[in-house]
Amino acid sequence: MAAVQARAELVEWEPSLPRTNRVRVRRHTCVCESPIYELCAAAGLGFVRRIIGDTPTSADESAWLSFRAAEDLWWRILRGKAR
Question: Is the pTM of this model over 0.70?
Answer without folding.
Answer: yes
